[in-house]
Input
Amino acid sequence: MTSTMSGADLAVVIVTLLSVVSVLALLLALQLVWRNLRALRTTIRDLHEQMAPLVAELDATLAEAHHELDRVDQLIGSAESISATVDATSRLAYKALSAPMIKTVALASGTSKAARRLRKVRD
Output
């Protein structure tokens, strides 16, 4: 008993074989995608585990920097206050001492001129 295949039967066999090969190729590709997805999940989990302490440390550093910035702001405010006080004090000292100093210098100058005139009269 020999059976001959018709062209349609041969086409069905070829299409079936190609379909099986295609399904196997798709299953292989799906397995590779699944493996890569698992590796990606592991990498993301490891990254999260490593980043959590770093983010906490960064948050602590940022809080400390904010605290230090507040201290610097207070120091600048104090320095401005001291500068204003020194400026006011120096203006007050200038006003208080300039008139007596000018009078003292004028008196000394007048006294020296009078002394020179008296020396000329004696000579």
Observations:
- Residues 1 and 9 are 18 Å apart (CA to CA).
- The first helix runs from residue 7 to 122.
- The chain has one helix and no strands.
